[in-house]
Amino acid sequence: MKLTENKEKIKAYRKKAEELVAKMTLEEKVSQMIHPAAAVERLGVASYNWWNEALHGVARAGIATIFPQAIGLAATFDEELVEKVGDAVSTEGRAKYNMQFKHGDHDIYKGLTFWAPNVNIFRDPRWGRGHETYGEDPYLTSRLGVAYVNGIQGHDPDHLKAAACAKHFAVHSGPEDIRHEFNAVASKQDLNETYLPAFKACVTEAHVETVMGAYNRTNGEPCCGSKTLLKDTLRDAWGFEGHVVSDCWAIKDFHEGHHVTESPVESVSLAVNNGCDLNCGGLFLYLVQAVKEGRVPESRIDEAVTNLFTTRFKLGLRDSGETTAFDDLSYTEVDSPEMAALNCSVSEKCLVLLKNKDSMLPLDKSKIKTLGVIGPNADNRRALVGNYEGTASRYVTVLEGLQDYLGKDTRILTSVGCHLCKPKVEDLANGHERFSEVEEICELSDVVVLVMGLDSGLEGEEGDQGNQYASGDKPNLNLPGLQSEVIKTVVESGKPVVLVVLSGSALDLSYAEDNIPAIIQGWYPGAQGGKAIARALFGDVNPEGKLPVTFYRSTEELPEFTDYSMENRTYRYMKQKPLYPFGYGLSYTEFEYSNCALSAESLSDDGVTVSAKVTNTGKFAGRDTVEVYVKILPDEAKKHLPNCSLKGIKKVFLKPGESADVSIKLPKSAFELFDEDGKPVIYKGKAVVSIGSQCPDERSRELTGKSVTCLEIKL
Length: 715
Prior knowledge:
Elements (H helix, E strand, L loop, with lengths): L6 H16 L3 H6 L4 E2 L10 E2 L20 H5 L4 H24 L35 H16 L11 E5 L13 E2 L3 H8 L1 H8 L5 E4 L3 E2 L2 E2 L4 H11 L5 E3 L7 H4 L7 H10 L13 H6 L5 H18 L21 H14 L1 E5 L13 E5 L7 H4 L12 H9 L4 E5 L19 H10 L2 E7 L29 H10 L4 E6 L7 H6 L2 E4 L7 H9 L32 H4 L17 E8 L9 E9 L5 E13 L10 E10 L4 E8 L6 E2 L5 E2 L3 E8 L5 H7 L4 E6 L1
Parallel strand pairs: 3-5, 4-6, 5-8, 10-11, 10-12, 12-13, 13-14
Antiparallel strand pairs: 1-2, 6-7, 9-14, 15-16, 16-19, 17-18, 17-22, 20-21, 22-23
Helix pairs in contact: 1-12, 4-5, 5-7, 13-19, 15-19
């Protein structure tokens, strides 16, 4: 049992919170509803700042382990691993909290309420914040979201280890520059099939403690004051019992951006009356006036503050009178050798091998006397960590990782090649000023490793410090600046080339696919990422990552960025062939599937189990990702049916020649779709269940030369 299942304990904490709130004045209660909650000294309540971040490590509060960015974690397709990362993050979070409270430090980013994970759907590759998510698929996002919440919140029967937060509720994925005024219009079908499942799973399965509203409106209602989302869906339909927090300064958008209210008092009234309990910002201080004017009943204030103190008691904060199993976690847990080892292991599992013509990889160290390492991301620390990051005690860039790995046996020649996005590295130069250096390194090198892509200065949140495009979104899928010219220059040298892409989203790699023999997508691989990439390039690590997003060829294939219909978006609904499909990723070894079967010919209330024998027929040990997809084929024609949908995943490690029997249970709900009214339905007809190492699409077959096994079941 864990606390979220211990109903009697939770009732006791809620009663304790109610008793405390009953002793407070209106002004004291309202002072608890903004993120820097004030102390109430007469009641022994310490100040508490609710705002803390832990998207892929404890952020913005000094030294902590920086794990791979969320999109990299998604590429592992590994629920167990993601929960392990969440557990490590909450261990460091507790240790840091204990230290900070001991020294009287109650500042921002010092609490135990972590505003992560981001379970929005990465529906469009232009969105700058997509690398904060677990990709484009609602099933994968649900499974990894639940895993991360479980890791953060823990399994203690008496207290939450930390409080997780599912954000941003709901239907939020850009554009960033108009998010404070934008109305995301989504059909009931798309809402329930795509945009809401991960939130529902975090609430109903993982019992996430907090849900954060989004900046935008959804179907006309501002999300942080939406009756449809916060009352009808979150509380009534899903039974959410935690607290709701606004996105930061989102409440003022009600009157300044969305123009659905006319004043701050009206805005805070709309938010609180519809279920928002906590304001990231200070506008909720107007609630005193709102209550006195009769706009908000004080009973609703009592309810909100009770929700907040219930969370504080669940956590056993130091001023709560509670003692927890985590009180003795020492600061020595932070950035420990064990954490560094875990971080490197996770980084290794994120890497996606996109191409490996003629088995160019892994490289043979004994045959390389001189290695060229070229590109603006070769020695770019920012390209390791993405956004919402902490501070590492040591960063290992790709260049540094290769230098450490190869030592003195191999000469490494390096050049930035070009600026990450500008036309010149040096402002006074004529441009292309590193190209002669690139050409010379190519002449002298046996192999060239190109390290290109983006960093969080080019894709991120609107207003991120140093963001080159201000809004955070990408204007297109091209490699920025002169990167494509550098790639062509290196290719034309005739030397063997490996391309490593560090980015948080899909880029157009068409030229590379046509001209470069080996390509690795490295994401933002964490502070130890360079070490992991070096080990992968030379075969100490066998890449096992799979793409959690579709790699398109250009934005011309996509609907308008502001169009929230899922029509022709993501692998589930797209009509054209992608460059690299969702679920795709190669290995240094080969896996074969046999004895594939379903446990029944017809679907029953118990669902169905799909099974297979997986054999490693290659020369390297490796972990395969077993992917199960369902395609619904109704007897009567229906509109807006997915091409197929991921419904099961499992990781299996196999040595060369080794086999394993794998089975994955699909519940009856795996065969549900939603009608135009947003109601779940299982259509009469049949379904095709596929099992293999990839999506059952034509492009995957072209890239791998393999097909998955497809089995039919009657619905």
